[in-house]
Every structure is written in C-alpha cells, then in structure tokens.
C-alpha cells in the first residue's frame, strides 16, 4: 500500500504538474524556469518523504527498494508523457528513454536515499543508545 501511495503522488503529481504548466504557460519562454521548478520539487518531495520513511523504518532494504521502484516509475513517466504530448516519434522516445529516464530517476532516488539514511539514523531503527549505555565511572 505504501508503494502505491508514493507512486500515485509522485507520478500523478508529475503528470498534473505537466498539465498545469501547459495550461498556465503557453509560451516557450517559461519552459526553462518551470523545468527547474519541477526538478526542485522532485528533489524536495522525495528527500523529505525519504526522511520520513527512514525515520519510521525498522529495516532499510524494503524502504530503499520501494523508493527505487518509485524512481523508476517517475523516470519512465517523463519520456512517455513527452511521447504522448509532442508526437509519436520512436527515435525521440528511444533517445528519451536512454537519457531522460536515468536523470529523472536519479532526481528521485538520490535525495530519497539520503533522506532514508538520515531518517534511519535519527529514528529508532538507527541503533540509538538511549539509557542502555553503562554509566561512566565516577572520578
């Protein structure tokens, strides 16, 4: 269930962002700024959500695999979205699959992985010492 929620938010949010920018910014001049805003949103949302997941995780591997799948889905959604919006050219689709997919997946996976690690270290799963440490000998 956690995987589907993350997929719906990240992929659905990417598609909604694309549709909203097409409606709001009809000129080509705003495309670069909007693209940078999209990249910043991907980095921020995946990093903060990864931090949340890492903080509440009991084990790291399932959380990382979940985010790797989300990153792959977001990465694949970009080229197919462009293919459906701009025209059905297989050469462009193939080029975007090779070049754009790893870039978009990295924009999701890298901050999520960093957030997971930091959150895990801060949360209960990180092996916190708490009160179980032996007391220091008094001098």
Give a structural overview.
By secondary structure, the protein is mainly α. It has a domain of 92 residues. The chain contains four helices and no strands. Helix 1 runs antiparallel to helix 2, helix 1 runs parallel beside helix 3 and helix 3 packs antiparallel against helix 4. The longest helix is centred in the last third of the chain and has 33 residues. It starts with a helix and ends in a 17-residue tail after the last helix. The mean pLDDT is 86. Keywords: Membrane, Transmembrane, Transmembrane helix. It comes from Nocardioides luteus. This is Major facilitator superfamily (MFS) profile domain-containing protein.
Helix and strand topology:
Layout: H1 2-24, H2 31-56, H3 60-86, H4 90-122
Helix pairs in contact: 1-2, 1-3, 2-4, 3-4
Please outline what is shown here.
This protein is mainly α.
Distance between the termini: 54 Å
- What does the radius of gyration come to? 20 Å
- Give the beta-strand count: 0
Strand content: under 5%
Could you say which overall geometry the principal axes of the C-alpha atoms support? elongated
The oligomeric status of these chains comes to single chain
Q: What is the helix fraction of residues, given as a range?
A: over 70%
Low-pLDDT runs:
none
- H/E element order: HHHH
Mean pLDDT: 86
Question: Sheet bearing the most strands, described?
Answer: none
Supply the helix-strand structural class. Answer: mainly alpha
Can you count the helices? 4
Descriptive labels:
mainly alpha; about 80% helix
